[in-house]
Every structure is written in structure tokens, then in C-alpha cells.
Write a structure and sequence with these properties.
single chain; 248 residues; TIM Barrel; 8-stranded parallel beta barrel; 17% strand; globular
């Protein structure tokens, strides 16, 4: 079953976040058994060439590569999809217009406005027709709900059929509420509950990013979410390193 189909069916998937551009990192994490891996362009030094190399490694390991773009930019969306990404995670989607722009940028006409090109995704030309059909059925679009303003149009955003799911950005969301990192704050928890209620009403697959590599948090998230990002490469390396050095 393709990743898009799993998300649409609310099948639980677990992925992780890549911010370090070395292909060995992507290969190690792919071999660990994640369902998908997201290459983060928003908060990393990874460039477009490294992105394509990482996508290639992840695909060769039979894992779905996604890209979290820097912003809702049609030109960047086009480039990462041409590089072979199976989909995009779009930050700071705060309105229906933001969500519509992401859809239009990811899909070719008549559904969208993505321009046609011959790159890696189209097998440099020889696979154009195949990719044209596959992109209609397999392109994943996940919006990040990470600002309090998004609640004003949340139902409209998640009602768009071509939005496959959402993922909560806990740090930015709490920051937009002037309580950065206070994830046990009652106001923050109320907002999270509101987001999840709207999503369930619309049968939209929900996700959250558990930044710290904490297995208890992961087990808790499994009860509520279907699209779970577990930690990020540098936090897993840091926590494992510090744990080793703290052993008596």
C-alpha cells in the first residue's frame, strides 16, 4: 500500500526527520524501519542537490521520502517533487488560501498549476507518462498546523480533499500562543484538542512531531495520531551520546 493510501485510510505510520545532509544518515534511518522520512529544508543547511541525493537513498531502501519545504513556495515545491519526493510537508499553513496554493503547486493541470519538466522523478524523460499518472494518485500533501491563527480557518483547510493530512508543529504553535515549549499548559492542550476534534469530524489523518526521542511520548501519541514523526536525527544522536556518557 502506498503512503498516500495509508494516510487516506487513517492507517498509522511512523516516520522521522532528517536535517543532516550525509547520505549515511538517511540510509541508517531508512534501514531502521520507518515508514517515511522527511528531509527538512526549513531548519537545516541541506541544499537541493543534497535533497535529491537523500531522496535517492531513501527510495532505494523502500521507504517513502518526503520533504518539509522552507515555505509555501511553488518553485521549491516543483523542484523537490521533480527530484523524486513522494510528497511535501508545508509549514505555516494558516488559511484556506495557503492550503490551496500548496495543492496548486504540487499538482499538474488541470488540478493544479505545477509546470512540466523532465528530471529524476520523470526518469529524465523516458518515464514522463508513467509519472504523470502516478503523481495524480501518489503525491502526498501534509499541512503543518503550527500557528494559533490557523484555527480561524481550520475546518476550511482540512476540508480540502487534496490535503491528505496535517501535522502539528508543537514548538511554533506554542510560540504563537506566547507559551513556547509549554506543552502541558492547559491553554495549549485545549488548542490541540480543538485541532484534533475538527480533524476527526472531517476524517482527516492527524499527526504530530515528537521532537525528543522519548518512547513513552511515542506510545501516548499512537493513541491519538496516525501520522507520527518520531524525533529528528540530531536529537537521537545527542540523546544516545549523552546517555552513554552518563552510565556509571
Amino acid at each position: 500500500m502506498k503512503l498516500k493510501e495509508k494516510i487516506r485510510n487513517n492507517t498509522q505510520t511512523i516516520g522521522s526527520w532528517i536535517t543532516l545532509g550525509h547520505p549515511g544518515i538517511a540510509e541508517i534511518m531508512s534501514k531502521a524501519g520507518f515508514d517515511w522520512l522527511t528531509i527538512d529544508l526549513e531548519h537545516s543547511g541541506i541544499d537541493i542537490q543534497q535533497t535529491e541525493d537523500l531522496i535517492r537513498v531513501i527510495e532505494l531502501c523502500d521507504v517513502s521520502p518526503l520533504v518539509r519545504i522552507t515555505n509555501n513556495d511553488p518553485n521549491l515545491i516543483k523542484r523537490v517533487l521533480d527530484a523524486g519526493s513522494h510528497g511535501i510537508i508545508v509549514p505555516m499553513v494558516n488559511s484556506l488560501a495557503d492550503a490551496q496554493l500548496a495543492v496548486q503547486s504540487a499538482y499538474y493541470p488541470p488540478k493544479g498549476k505545477r509546470s512540466f519538466g523532465l528530471a529524476r522523478a520523470q526518469r529524465y524523460g523516458i518515464g514522463f507518462e508513467h509519472y504523470l499518472e502516478r503523481s495524480k494518485e501518489e503525491t502526498v500533501i501534509i499541512v503543518q498546523i503550527e500557528h494559533i491563527d490557523a484555527l480561524n480557518e481550520l475546518e476550511a483547510i482540512l476540508s480540502l480533499d487534496d490535503i491528505d493530512g496535517y501535522i502539528i508543529g508543537p514548538y511554533d504553535l506554542s510560540g504563537s500562543m506566547n507559551i513556547p515549549g509549554q506543552f502541558e499548559n492547559s491553554e495549549y492542550l485545549h488548542v490541540i484538542e480543538t485541532i484534533n476534534k475538527v480533524a476527526k469530524k472531517l476524517n482527516k489523518s492527524g499527526g504530530i512531531h515528537i521532537v525528543e526521542p522519548d518512547l513513552q511520548l511515542l506510545e501516548s501519541a499512537k493513541k491519538e495520531y496516525n501520522f507520527i514523526a518520531y524525533s529528528v536525527d540530531f536529537r537521537m544522536i545527542d540523546v544516545a551520546s549523552r546517555s552513554a556518557l552518563s552510565v556509571d
